[in-house]
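quick one before i forget lol
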Amino acid sequence: MNNRVARYILVAMGWIAVALGVMGIFLPLLPTTPFLLLASACFMRGSPKLNQRLHQHPQLGPILVNWHQHGAVTSRVKRRGLIMIVLSFSFSILMVPLWWHKLMLLVGLVVLLYCFNRLPIVDIQPDSVSVAELDENP
């Protein structure tokens, strides 16, 4: 019974992460990729069928496959991420009144940009992801 409850919780968390990821497509400050990765992780443990369906989705699947196969993001995702990181940190730095808060935010910005820029870029073509590849690398 306890295992069943854990699976239901994981599936529910997966669906919430999918919803937030889809919202991130349209809302610039909400990231898509991390939520889809979280959904995939939840579905892997809670419902492998849902995980497979998520990986086979025409729009969301290639993001996950790119991450799972290459540990990379597309150039579009990276460009949007960099722009949003710089904009949100710049806004925060302008809004906080204390100089040491500004300094902490600036240090955080530099560290985050360093880590984010180290992510590899692999642009995949829509036709290059096949169902056979998805079955080999769940």
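fyi Confidence is low (pLDDT under 50) at residues 128-138.
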